[in-house]
Amino acid sequence: MHVYDRRRPSAPAASYCPFHIAMMNNKKRQQPLNKHLTCAIYNHDGTKILGSYNDEDIYLIDTKQDEYIEDSDMSAEDAVGYRRRYTGHRNSATFKGVSFFGPRSQYVVSGSDCSYLYIWDTESEAIVQWLYADINGVVNSIEAHPRFPVLATSGLDRDVKIWVPIKQADPDYEGMEKVIRENSVTMRSPLFNDFLPAIYSAWREDNPHALGRNLDFDGNACTAF
Question: What pLDDT digit, counting tens, does each position of 141-152 carry?
Answer without folding.
Answer: 999 998 899 999
